[in-house]
Amino acid sequence: MLVYVAWRLVLLQAVGAVPQFISSSATPASSVVSSASSDTATSISTVVASASAAASAIPSSEPLPPVQPWCISEIFCVCVLLQDVNLAEVYSDPKMVVDKPMSKSSQQVLAGFSVLQHGSSVASIMEGDIVSFEDDDFTGEGQELVVVALTDFNDSPMFLQNVMDLLIQAWAQIGSGYWADLIWETNTSATCPIYPDDGDCEGTFIR
Ligand SMILES: *[C@@H]1O[C@H](CO)[C@@H](O)[C@H](O)[C@H]1NC(C)=O
């Protein structure tokens, strides 16, 4: 019977029904922060901006969508800054822009963007300008969470013995084992206030 269960599991894995691992690094890495727990190591990769044509002007702006009353940040919500950064396509995942907290205050970031808009002799903002702006004024995404090492994790909970079908029991056992990898906690010293709170940075992470 156990051989049969093992065989069925191999089949399920072969068709992708059972995940073999959970990857936390689906995006290209620029820097890797590792925190090791007792027997696992989890890495958080962060992404840096890059331009396909740094010396090219970003495409000209489209009319902005309507402002959403519940989203009032002057940087992470509907605004020219957000649109221009997205038009420069400096990240392969456009959502990355709002995942990155600032490394400065909102006022400093807005002032820096204003210089980009008006301070240069060329009429347009270049892709390379946005790369520097993102890398100088924003920091690594995902640093607000840290791995928790569970000291009392029971990887064979009693209730599994009540599951009579051995295939389902084995599947539940594997699923239960993922809990240890899914537990994270907020690192409060890495979070930024959400606009309009004053702070030395601003982010979108909701505590
Ligand atoms: C929490 O965040 C601070 C500030 O970014 C960092 O220095 C510290 O290493 C982080 N703590 C952990 C446990 O990752």
From TrEMBL:
Keywords: Hydrolase, Signal
Any one GO MF annotation of this record: alpha,alpha-trehalase activity
GO biological process, one term: trehalose catabolic process
InterPro entries recorded: 6hp_glycosidase-like_sf, Glyco_hydro_37
Domain of life: Eukaryota
Signal peptide start and end residues: 1-17
UniProt protein name: Alpha,alpha-trehalose glucohydrolase
Lineage of the species this protein comes from: Eukaryota, Fungi, Dikarya, Basidiomycota, Agaricomycotina
